[in-house]
Amino acid sequence: MSDTDPPVLVVGAGLTGLAAGALLAWHGVPVRVVDRRPSQSRHPRARGLHPRAMEVMRRLGVEETIRAAPSAVALARNDTVITTTSLADRELARLDAGYFMGAQRKVGGLSPTGWCQCHQAEVEPILRARALELGARVEHGVEMTDFRQDDRGVEVTLKHTADGTGETVRASHLIAADGARSGVRERLGMPFEGSGPFGRFVNIHFRADLSAALNGRRFIMAYIRNEHVSAGLMPLDNRSFWLLHLVLGPDDDARPSAERCRKLVRAAAGVPELDVDILGIAPWEASARVAARFREGRILLLGDAAHVMPPTGSFGANTGILEAHNLAWKLAAVRAGQASDALLDTYDGERRPAAAATVQQAVLRNRDRQRLNETPGARPDPRIRPDAVVWFGSDYASGTGRWADLPDGRPGTRAPHVPWPTAGADGSVLDLFGPRFVLLTGPEPADSGWRPAVQRLPLDVHALPGTKACAAYGITPDGAVLVRPDGYVTWRSRTAVPAPTAAVAGALADVLHP
Q: Which domain holds residue 507?
């Protein structure tokens, strides 16, 4: 990397930071990802990539690699939430897949992919390897200690934690993906608005053979409440490896001892003499907060640095991945001189409302899940939108501040999935998107004039395969839609227009120079 082409610097190499690094490299942007930790964490932490995030993994070429990871294979058919006094006792309540769409691989024809229950410690090495393969530079044991930005870039001070040596680097932009206690956000003095903490927790990663108490059941989570423990039990392989999300009381130690953790695991399992190996203990707090801004000059926030939310629904890291997807193509376009700097303002305008709405949905689910498990037959909170709407129906990309029901081709919404015959049995029109804009026309482009008219514009042109696909996008056979590199519809003409080149060129200009 030369001084005339400074990289984008990403601080934080968790799921969101690695996704940002891989996506930027995929778009041809020089990128360096640093993390103060000496190595990647082996603690499972987040578990589950929802279908929209898996679409991003698909574009990066790692979808099937993630699905082949041990936890993903083991948990592929887990799709319910139960409540019980211990794993060995009878169930008190059950929420089946209909409540939250569970682990379905195909989500009602809305996507070519589906949910994947693969835990974070297995996904991160896959994303890291892909980022490196694409040309990103990823380093552990490198801590950001200070930064100063001007109108030409960001000067960042780094410390190599192994020997304490310092380094000053120049970056075109700084991306903060350094977690809920983001040092970048704190140095900016950025308000972190919302509520909480409304609970203290500890994640206990452990190994124990629970097959007898499990008795063949498969679930996403078991809520366990008894006189000794209040926790959520999550399987990592349906047999020996588990996470216990322990609820702490006001007087409980933030990090209980290994022996205390073993006793709590035995109480949750309902097996007093259970042999338990404690593999990791990670305290955390549940809050609902969103940064006041996602952009401050050349500094951009994403993931937990930009928002925190309860884990119910597994929206946190997934939301960060979608932010990286939104931001990467915009940074690439600005750096290449194809777009004005104002395009980066749309990152805040699009993703901050989406994050705030998702935080609200996570809070509602967090409150509702316990109520439904404690009161069998109760109806879900009507303010909770179906998971498919949260995954695919966000209309916040257009800044309208409302949820769309399902993708239907309207500008500002994620482009609908329709099968794409030339891409194989599981091919989708979504596979066409990125890194260039795509113009989708009806199946009669020669008559409508779209293809010959736009040949000199910087985009790809494809004809939708039939009238049913056109209907999914809300156009007639001689209409067209323009789709951004991140798969969002940005312009639509339901029918042919007299001057197609001018129409599409104007739509491109509106996006790139807002």
A: 407-512
